Structures are given as C-alpha cells and as structure tokens.
Amino acid sequence: MLKDTIFQEKYDREKFSLFLKDFLINYKQEPEEIDLKEGFDKIKKLTFLGYDSRLDNLPVYEILHQSEKDPRVTLTRESFKVMRKLGRKNSLCIFLNKDSDNYRFSLIQIDFDINKGKIETLYSNPRRYSFYLGTNAKIHTPTTYLIKKGRVKDFKDLKERFSIEVVNKEFYNEISKLFTKLVGGKRIIGRKKIDEKGCLTLPEANNKLLRQEFGVRLIGRLIFCWFLVKKGIIDKDLFDVDIIGNKNYYHRVVEPLFFMVLNTKEDERKLKESFLNEKLVSLFEKIPFLNGGLFEPHKDDFYEQGFQSLSKYENSLKIENEWFKELFELFETYNFTVDENSSVDIELSIDPEMLGRIFENLLAEINPETSKPKRKSTGSYYTPRTIVDYMVDESLKFYLINETGIEEKKIEDLLKFENEEIVKDLNDDEKEKILDSLEKVKILDPACGSGAFPIGMLQKITLILQKIDPNSEKWLEKQLNQIKDTGIRTITKKFLIKQNPNYIHKKGILKNSIYGVDIQSIAVEISKLRCFLTLIVDQKFNEEENIEIEPLPNLEFKFVCANTLIGLTKVFDIQSHEIQNLIIELKEKVSTYFYSHSVEKEKTKKEIEEIQKELFETMLIWKETRSKEYTSQLHLSNWNPFSGETSDWFDPEWMLGVTDGFDIVIGNPPYVSTKGVNEKDKKILKEHYDFEDDLYNHFYFKGIDLLKDNGILAYISSKTFWTIQTKKNLRELLLKNKLLHLVDTANPFESAMVDTCITIVQKTNAENNTMLFIDAKKGLANKKVYEVSTEVFKNVVNNIFFVPNEFNLKVYEKLAKPVKALMDEWWNLISTSKNIEKNKHTLEQYRKSLKPGDITLLGLITEGGQGLATANNGKYVGVLDGTKFAEKILQERPKKLWAFIQNKSPKELSHLKNKNDVEKYLNNLSENEIRNLFDTLKEKYGRDIFGQGWLYRIVSKDEIADVEALTEDEKLNGIKGKKTFVPYDKGDKDGNRWWAPTPYYIDWSRENVKFLKDNSGKKGQGMPVVRNPQFYFREGFCWTDVSYDIRCRIKEKSVHDVLSMSLFSNMQQINNKYLICLLNSRFMSLYLNTFINTTVHFQINDARKLPIIIPTLTQLKEFEDIFNRAVSIQKQKFSKQISEQKAEERLDEIQKELDEKVLELYGLKEKQ
Length: 1168
What we know:
Elements: H1 13-23, E1 27-34, E2 43-52, E3 58-65, H2 72-86, E4 90-97, E5 102-115, E6 118-134, H3 140-148, H4 155-161, H5 164-183, E7 185-189, E8 192-196, E9 200-201, H6 208-231, H7 249-262, H8 278-285, E10 318-319, H9 321-333, E11 345-347, H10 352-366, H11 385-404, H12 408-415, H13 422-425, H14 428-440, E12 443-445, H15 452-468, H16 473-481, H17 486-496, H18 501-512, E13 514-518, H19 521-536, E14 559-561, H20 577-593, H21 598-619, H22 627-638, H23 652-656, E15 662-667, H24 679-689, H25 695-706, E16 707-718, H26 728-736, E17 738-746, E18 756-762, E19 770-775, E20 784-789, H27 791-794, H28 806-830, H29 833-838, H30 840-849, E21 855-857, E22 862-865, H31 873-876, E23 877-880, H32 884-904, H33 915-923, H34 927-941, E24 953-955, H35 968-973, E25 981-985, E26 1000-1003, H36 1006-1014, E27 1036-1039, E28 1048-1051, E29 1055-1056, E30 1062-1065, H37 1072-1080, H38 1082-1092, H39 1100-1103, E31 1107-1109, H40 1113-1134, H41 1140-1161
Parallel strand pairs: 3-4, 6-11, 12-13, 12-15, 13-14, 15-16, 17-19, 23-24, 25-29
Antiparallel strand pairs: 1-2, 2-3, 4-5, 5-6, 7-8, 9-10, 16-18, 17-18, 19-20, 21-31, 22-30, 23-26, 25-26, 27-28, 27-30
C-alpha cells in the first residue's frame, strides 16, 4: 500500500510512477522526451511518462515550466496548446518547476472541432482539473480521492476523482456544521442530524436573525483573512488561539485585527497604548490598512472601545475559544488558493469562489423570503459556474456586437479562454472600439446574492483586456482621465503604474462597470468581500521595490442594500440650475469616494451627506404642487448609503450614479411565489406593476425597465412562465422585445427545485426576429440548438414557449396554429360551464357543421365541470363496507376518538379512561350510533376536530340505492326511505386509467339534499357549494387532478365532487369512450405539457383547449374496441381475476397500440 506522504514530498518521478501503477488500471511506463519546438513561453520541457491501455491509452506527461510565479492562466492555455499539437483529448499531467518543491497533478480534457469529418486545428470545451501537491501542500483531499478510494475503475471514475464539486460540498458541510455550532439550530447532513444550542452569546441574546447574520459576517471575514495569510499579508501565528493563553480570543485577537488594524491606517492605530501584548503588537504592525468598509464595525458587531481600547461588550458578547480552534483546524485541512478558479482551470482547493458558494447557501437559510420552506443546506442555491459563464459570455457578446459592429465570430473568439490567437485577427481600430465599449459598459445584478454574476463579469472582462491590452497601458490611461481631482489622480497614477496589469484592469472594471443590489444587507457585504478578495489577490506588493499595498476602494455606491422592485417617482424634469448643479456635484463626489480612504474618505463622506441635505432642502419648494415628487425627496433624504441598512426602494441614479440605464442586467432573481409575499408588499407590487405575481416575474419587468434602449437582459429563472396562464404578461413582454436566446437548463441546481431556463432578451421593439432556442437539459456541453422565428410563439395559444424540435414544429403546423384560430373565435363561449349553457344553441349549430377529419376543441364538443363541495364530507360521505378504505376507518376511529378525549376532556365521554375503553365502547355501538356520536361531537366542538375531511361512515350494501331506477325527482331532490346512499366520485389518488370502482358513497337523502341546495354558496364554515347539478347521475369521463400525465377514466352514473372534474360528450357521433382514448394517449399528455400548460394540476380549462379530431365511423369503432379491452382488464384486476402485474403488462400492450393509432389519426406518424 502506497503511503499518502508521497503527496507531501518533493516530486520524484520513480515514486510517482509507483503511485500511478496503484492508481490507474493498467499503467505502462515508457519515458520519452518530446521536442516541443517553438511557440511556448512558459513550458520548457515535455516528457511522455507512459499510458494506461485500459483507459483508451490515456497518456501521462511531465511538464517542466519556467517558474513558480508563472501565471496559472498562461500555463493552462499553453498546456491545452500542447495537447492540441499532440492530438490528445484526455491526459494526465504533472506540472513542475525548479523554483519550488510543490507541483500540480492535473487531468486535462479538450474536444477537437470537427468540420465535415475533418479534425480542425481548433479545439473547444477545454478543462484542467488539478491537485496541488508537494512539501507545503495539505494532503487531506488528494489522499481521500487518489489513494483511499483505491484503483480507478474507468474514465468516468477518474473524472469524479478530480471533481471540484465533491471538494466544495465536503468543505461546505464542515463550515455549515461550525456555523450551526456557533449560532445554534438544527441541521441534517447526509443521515446525520445536528442539534446545537450555539456557543455565541450576543448582548441581544434572543434575536435569532441577529446571531445568524453575525455568524455569517464573522466566518466571511475570517475566511478572507485566511486568504490574506496565503497572500503573505497576515502572519499565520495570529490564527493560533493559544497566543493569548486562557483569555477570550475573539475580543483579544479577532476584534483588534478587524477593527483596530485592517480598518485603521497605520499611523492612526495606537496599538501600543492598548491592552495588546508585545507579540500581538509586533504581528499587527506588519499588517497594512485595507479600507473598503469590509472591516468597519457594523452596528450589530457590538464593537465599542472602552478602557485601553478593550471592547465594552467583553462580558456580554461571548464566543468559546474552542470554536475558533475547530474552524482553524478545518482551514488547515484544505489547500487554499488565492487564484480564483475559472470554468476552464479548476484547482481542487478552496478558492475565492468557494466563499460565494458558502455564503449563498448560508444566506438562503437566514433569508426570511426563503425560510418557508427553508432551503436545504446542500450547496445547491449557488448558481453553477457553467451557467454563470454562459450568461456572462452571451450578454457581453451581444453588447459588444451592438457597440462595436465587429463580426460575431471575432467577438466569440475574444470571449473564449482558449483562443489567444484572436488578437492577431483584430486591427487597432477594433481593439480601440472594444476598449471604449468596456470602459463605458454598465452592468447590474438586481439580486446579487453573494456576487456570482458580478465576479463572473469582472473575470470575463479582465480576460478580454488581457488579450487586447496585456500591459494595461491604454486601460490605465482611460482610468486616470476619469479622475477629476488632480491630487487623487497623481497619487493613483504613482501607485498603479507599478502594479500588476490584472489589478489595474480589475480596479477599473469595478469602478466603471459593476453594480449589485440585494434586499439582504449581509448579501451585499459578502458581494463586496468577494470583490475585495479578487482585487487583493492580483495586487502586487514588495517592500524591496517600495510597492505598498493600496487600500481597497469604497463600494457603498457599487453594491447597495435595497428593494430592487420598488422605484422612486422620476422627478428630474425640473429645470432649476441650482438643482442640476447639485446633482452633478453629487455624482462627482460619489466617483471620488471610490478611491478615497481614511481622512479623505471621511471628508468626502461628509460632503456627500451635505449635498444630499442641501438638495432635499432646495426641493422642499415643490412640496405643495408635486406631492409624489416630494415623497421621492423624502425617501432620498432618509437614505443613508453608509449605514448598511436595507432601503425599501431602489433608484439607480441616486444610489449608483447611473442616469441613463444599464447596458446589461444579469442575475438569478429570487424564486419566491406570491404565497411567500405579505399582503402589504403585494399591494405595493400591484401599485407599481399593475399585477402581483411570483417575484421573478416582477424582476423581468424591472430588469427591462432598468436597461438602456438596446440593452441586454440575461436571467436564469423558473421556466414556469413558458406555459402558465398567469405569466402570459411576461411572455408578451419578451416577444415585444427582441428575444435572443431561450435555454432549457432543466434543473442545474443540486436540490429538487423547479426547472429553470436562461432568458436573454434585448430591449428593442421587434416584430419578428430569429432567435436561438437551446435544449440544454443534459447540460450546456451537450446542448441542442434550434433556430426559430419568434413568430412561431406569437401564433400559438397564449404565446406558449415550447422546444421547436422537428416533432413539435410538425404539431405546431398541424394542430397548434388551427387551435389558435379556434380559440380566438370560440373561447369566450366555452370558458365556463355557464358560458357553454348560455351559448348552447350557437354551439349546437357549430357541432352540426363538423365532419370527419375536422379539428375541434374538447370544450366545443363537451359540457360539464366541477361537482359538489359538501364542506363537511364526514357528515355526508362514507365508504363501502369490506373495502380497504373501510378497514382503515375501523382502525382510525378509536385513535381519533381517544386523541379527541385527551385534548378536549368532554364530560359525556368521561367514563372512557384509556384507549382500550374507547375500543370496547365503539365495538358495542351500531353503525348508526357511531355516525350519530361523531356527528354530534363535530357539531358541538367544531367541524375539523377529527381532521378536515376525515370520513367515519361505513356504508353497507343494504343502504345503497339502484341508480338506474332513480327518478328525475330523486336525482334532483333526494331519496326517501332506507336506501339513500348513491355512488360518489371524489377523484382517484391512485391515478387509474380507463375504469376504477368508487368506494365512496354519499347519503342522498331528501333532508341532506335540501340542506345542500338551500345553503349552497353561503358564507361560513360548513356551507356547501352545489356546482353543475344537471350533470349528476350522468355518465361522462374524469381524470386524476394531480399527475404528470393525463390519467382519464369513465365516470359512471354518480354524483361527483370538486376533485372529480368531469366532462360529458354532447355529440352523437363522438362518445365518451373515444374521448377517453384520446386523453389517455401519450401524445395528448405531450401536447398538454408542451402547448397548453406544464403543470401537475390538470384543470378543466386546460382540458377544454385540447385538440380533438372528428373520427370516421370506422375509427370510432377501433377506439371503442381499445377502450372496452382496457376496461375489461381493469375490472379483472380489481376483482382479483388477474394479478396487477399481468394487468399492467396487458395495458402496456394496449397503450402502444393506442399511441400508434392516435399519431396516425393526427397525421403525426413517421413514414416508414
């Protein structure tokens, strides 16, 4: 067995070859040096070590590169180039350099582009997955996946060993456990349940949300500091909890590190006059000032200095030292890398993106909007990186094409990580256009969460700038020209001219282009934290070269905490020069504030507040004549951008300084349904949008509103808007603008959420345009692309969106278009049972005109609807004696009665002392006495005391009336005598097709029917609703109301309830049997889900829209035969004449026959 210490030693070829023999299936060592020739800057030597014949001859290479400081991005790009030259799709590579005892073990994958059967020199979809190994590496992860899991089974298993998702989930689970241990609460990880009291005590002890937000902020700052350790900015000795002996580590080390050091300029710290000992002072003095607000004390940090700078809350804010020890031990277990992973180059370490993953999920747990139901703690709500990259790439592509006029292929190549050759294809004029476009682009994430999209944008724009302005000469010049204050411009230039080009790129992008809003203040803090981290990892500092760390920029006007959906009334049609000048001055100060720090920062901050105050006072004169405008100014005067508190409104001009809209709005809006929105907020939404709906619908309207003309909106959201009636307004909005891409992403998240889609739309009026509909249900790497005109979606009922594959387009031409015409003409006449009755003569004339082969709507040839709602089923409805349902009632009665006695202690049953007494008591009562007992108790103590809708009546065959013998009077007004129970169809939860016996019977006595009819529709508990009584006791068809496909069966002569929505054929040449056959076909379920409504709730108005072909007499008989055979099998199954398995086998055969005939009937059968 190979020792895991191999991963903590300097690379040794022979030892590593032994590992490969144990790790791979059939590794054969055949070392051979390969001549690279020219074209590589960093890679200096390539050695072929061997291959695995059982893994498609997977090669293993040793790559020697120039230096440990070689940029990962350059090295990765060159390694892809090597594999392309060698024609290798998959390979394992060991990356070495002479400067370091550390190395990387990587799995590299690329796809070759194939054009007309020829492999091109281009490649696509490159990936590099790496383990960081060697003397300074943490070996927990590589040991777990490369040694402890044993020998690789196949290539799929090899890929899983290099999966970052596994590492991320493992680390998140550990962090989430420590979060719960800190703040308290319950958590389930795998099969393990955790229940913690919490080791955090706050001055406001009972505030759960306060504790959770404190915990998120603390963990976020500590992880940030750990990255600073990796960057060499903070000494690791500070993370030794025993550095202060038995004193409180939080108050003695963490608080001073955050608030006295990182948040305070070096010459203002006064460390030696504080409680800190000499060792801490010496460690703290080496740490530079970071600024940026990240370590400014939040009001809920409970930090206020007392004697010798010690916190006044030392005795009321407590965190056990042991908790910090556990956290730092966890940090020590994993490799941390300051280089943020891209979707192309992935190191199996904890990178800055992981910070986002952690907090997106912790935020989801403490977000009041998502806590009901509470989000699972699985790492599943962070938008997957592939999704972020796609949306970022596509929105930037459309923006750059619009702004520069450069051809699409060049822009696409520019956005690709692997295509470094594109720069040669761009002339100077094109490069300048791209630079200008990127300098002025404004990008907003209106629900930024932990910053996945802003950071994705920042990285992608940085990649583009690396290609067209690698030394950042032009970019730096553009950034300096924006600074109006000559003093700040001089200081900024002096610093930036020595800096890493990537740092210059990123800082300019962040200042000019990136904006975020979130309703959660803690989310805004985490977004800022990630921005700071991505800046600091690229910042160059070197004492020998006299390059100091530059304080971080201020992001208060880049990321704001506000309710994106609610805006202010636009008031700036005002012509006052004084007001206009104040607005201009305010924007200039906001721009200056980005770079300022310390004394300058405080000065600028006060100046901004003064301008706000002056502006408000100036506009008071409009109070009397312009009340709405005055209200807006009142909001503005109350907004404090420096408080971190949530604003209940959002205005991009005042909060972000963006006056004419955004070029790109991108994000993952919240999936909060209308049910999760309180009544007050619903009212506000209604006032602002003229409708109230799921929040993501409102975010689409707001997103379009926030865009400039020709701006690009890119969202990933629930795809329920494709078909659902209440989202028709959203479909109309998208089709009114220029819909560019609609991408079916199914469910890219780990937990069971709704299916999602990516929508990319341009804000511009478009009659009909060609768009891309992309089927990426199996992932974006395996997508199917369909080019289609938006006219297609305008020509279907309700502008439904559907995948325009070959079959669906055939259905669209043959059925969906004709159905649209029928709907336009007839829907208002058949949309309700009342309308059908009111227009019965017109409809009858229409039905007479139909002939075989014609297409009609199910609603045009049927009548019916919902049935009876008794509002008290226990009193009226029972189950047939001898059935499994009756057996269940016999078991439930004593349990329900005993639970009631324990709860209510009724005097009339005080003689029953235990459950045995109850069972004996019930056994001595007749069936009628039991009914009377439960009826009386319900009348006295409340309808739902035994549970809403609970049935307790057991009906004998002697009580059941012969439905066939009932008179019309008895059907309408009830039955006299002893046999008063009739069949009651209340739906079928088992989802039977064709036929099923009903175990339910309703007491249709004269007395009961009179009460039901006399009180129908009255207000109050227990008041019934008698719907469509004209259809009671009539044979028709019904369906299971909750199912992913249509499950239709015959409804025999009975009373039906609301869950047994029923229709009845009213055409002589079309009977119920034929219609049941059509509805039970797989095609009809497909049509329903594709062209009507994707829902598990099959409503009656969905049924009315289904297309029906008028059959010939021959076709009608063929379908009747299928129906009769299916019903016969069902009856044999329920009577136990054949087994369930045998019945299912026979019904499957019938289903295949039915599906063939239905496709043939509708002209959709493929020609052989």
